[in-house]
Write a structure and sequence with these properties.
Layout: E1 8-13, H1 18-34, H2 45-48, E2 53-60, E3 63-74, E4 77-85, H3 94-108, E5 113-119, H4 125-133, E6 137-138, E7 151-157
Parallel strand pairs: 4-5
Antiparallel strand pairs: 1-2, 2-3, 3-4, 5-7, 6-7
């Protein structure tokens, strides 16, 4: 780690590593502990292997510190999925670097709009602040989502 934080490496991931599988399982466990079952929309590893999803992992040296994914939802639109930072590596820029990378990749891929769903509880406040800081705005439920007091929906127009 240097004075500005660790040097981060972001990679497209095929989800074959046991470390990544464990990281994603921890993500699901954490989401299930903070949201009611009907309001937990995090995807498991098999769903993240779908042909319409790209997953990125973030590494500090050989340590997995974050992950995030984009799912193609059609009509030049995508959904941000599975954003997570390791609890031991929060507030050092992991999520910001990853979100910037994902927004750039989504724009390069020709998406015009990105959506996301996150929790409405206090636990998710840092995530909502990150998304607002990066130009996301609150919106109505999209795609398969229904109104839910435990969920917040956000969107961002992507420039080409």
């Amino acid at each position: 780690m240097n004075a500005e934080g660790p040097a981060l490496r972001i990679e497209t991931d095929d989800l074959s590593s046991p470390a990544v599988a464990e990281f994603l399982l921890d993500h699901l466990t954490e989401m299930r502990s903070t949201s009611p079952p009907e309001s937990t929309h995090a995807l498991g590893i098999e769903a993240l292997r779908g042909p319409d999803i790209t997953v990125w992992t973030v590494w500090a040296d050989r340590t997995l510190v974050g992950c995030g994914a984009v799912q193609d939802i059609g009509d030049e639109q995508c959904e941000l999925k599975s954003m997570r930072t390791s609890p031991r590596h929060k507030r050092i820029g992991v999520a910001s670097a990853l979100l910037d990378h994902i927004l750039t990749e989504a724009t390069i891929r020709g998406y015009r709009r990105m959506y996301l769903e996150t929790g409405s509880m206090n636990f998710y406040e840092p995530a909502r602040k990150l998304y607002l800081k990066n130009g996301f705005e609150f919106c109505e439920p999209f795609g398969q989502y229904a109104p839910d007091p435990n969920s917040v929906f956000m969107t961002k127009s992507l420039s080409r």
